[in-house]
What we know:
Number of strands: 0
Amino acid sequence: MIMRLSGEERRGHEIRELLAELAFSLDVEGLN
């Protein structure tokens, strides 16, 4: 089965990844 993400789904996925990276860097800064 070929899975294709629509533009909207792909954009939502990218946003979630960016938010995850942002939360991770904030956590790292908070620990220092």
